Each structure stands twice: as C-alpha cells, then as structure tokens.
Amino acid sequence: MESLQNITKGIIENRMERAEISHIAQEISFAFEDHFNDREKRKLFYTLFDRYLAPLDPADTMEPYDAIIKLGRSNPAEFDQMVKEMKESALIPDSLL
What we know:
Layout: H1 4-34, H2 39-52, H3 64-74, H4 76-88
C-alpha cells in the first residue's frame, strides 16, 4: 500500500504539471493574439492548431486556450511536440519552459 507521503508527492506533482500546462497555454494564447495581424505567423499558428488541437475539438467549439490545456492533460507527448514546433517557428520564446 502506498504511503501517505508518496500519495501527497503525486498530488503535488500533478498540480505542478497542471499549473505548468495552464501557464504555457496562456503564453501561447497571448502570442497568438500578439501575432494575429502577421499573416505568416497566423498561418503557422493555424497549421499547428489544426494538427494538434482539431482532433480534440472536431466541432471547433473550444477556445485555443482550453484546447491546449486539454491536449496537455490528455496527451503530454503531443503537447510537448506542439510547443517544440512553436519554439522552432519563433511563435513563442525559447525561454518558455
């Protein structure tokens, strides 16, 4: 049986992961808004959103922020890959986690 200490550690790590995902989702949303008038960057955002977020929200009813959080919680590997591609495309800063 797991000790209370291990259970508590898992809960804290889960909260930290959720906070990190929320922070990254917020930064991506801000970057999307900041670059919306730049056609090339907007096109890159839409391409990545279509690839990573559309499968989670086929009816396109979610805001990008909410879909990004859902991606981070349901598929962390895909979330990390999307963030990596956004950094490589200079859509978000490299310093973002």
